[in-house]
Amino acid sequence: MSEVCLTHINKTYPNGYEAVKDFNLDIKDEEFVIFVGPSGCGKSTTLRMIAGLEDISDGELTIDGKRMNEAEPKDRNIAMVFQNYALYPHMTVRQNMEYPLKIAKLPKEEINKRVTEASNILGLNMLLDRKPAALSGGQRQRVAMGRAIVRNPKVLLMDEPLSNLDAKLRGQMRVEITRLHKRLKSTIVYVTHDQTEAMTLGDRIVVMSDGEIQQIDTPENLYSHPANKFVAGFIGAPQMNFMDMSIEETENGILLKKEGARLALNTEQSRKLKERGFRQGSHITLGVRPENLSIDQSGSDQKNSLEGTIDVFEMLGASSNIYVSCGDQQIAAILPAGVFCKEGTPVRLQFDLDYVHLFDPDTDRNIMADQA
Ligand code: ADP
Question: What number does the ligand 1 atom closest to the CA of 35 have?
């Protein structure tokens, strides 16, 4: 059992800076939780408070029901893996992994057993006698993970562990970490600024901005039902397009209008907007993901589409991105493989309206996701 509960946690640094504000989260046993958000939003500070490397200014941290605010880091049964692997350069891989167990004065046989187990899991058997200088970046990071897991920690904390690796290796290590979590069944809290890592690794993701939690949810829900404009823009690449639209009420429901575009919302969307007091002439922020736009080939039906000129065409292989200038805005769209576009040519983008998002321009809250 290793549940971690953070209740009304705040962190104010000695210079008065409020890095974390009213952070509430219950992490379940064996859960893989990700803290994600832009640089400086308070992810590492929160992780370091769990580890005991940073004092908690206010609120309570419990692990398995026991208050931990005042506990020394070594008494929390937590292991941490950092971005810079911090391996001892003069020690071999085996010695690096043995080190924390020797400090804990475990018997020699137990140390051997745990190091063998960890190197089996992480594929380090052939490298045990090498020094860190003779390892690749990915191998070093695996040793750093090995050194953390030999301690059989209740909770494994990882702070941007892959950010020093190149893109290909990061992809491989993501798969390895998922496998590791399945094998170890430990509770993992993982910090990253990379939304792809967050979406692919986490059971649940905590999206943070400016020291505050924006949304805690599964990857699917963050993508499909973002709580606000910040989360909507943060998850997904290229990011969601946002447009200011004005409302026209018709017999058949609500039309959203802007220069060159008239979009007919479905019954549910129209009902929700009306219920929330949006009327003829009010403005809303429309959000549409690039994957929910396509090129309108018909040429005749001007409904539910937007006209513009192709600025940039990016061939990615399995798909392509186009960036289209529509009046004063640039709109990104993802096209399937095999569709080619010429830069500088006019284009009509068709909206998949069942997948658009509607945000309140005053609060940035997602009108469709809000219960209130
Ligand atoms: P993240 O991990 O999301 O990049 P951090 O948790 O490291 O962000 O930092 C959150 C904010 O707290 C940042 O604005 C950072 O500059 C500030 N901060 C971090 N450490 C200190 C410190 N020791 N004193 C004052 N401010 C700090």
Answer: 3
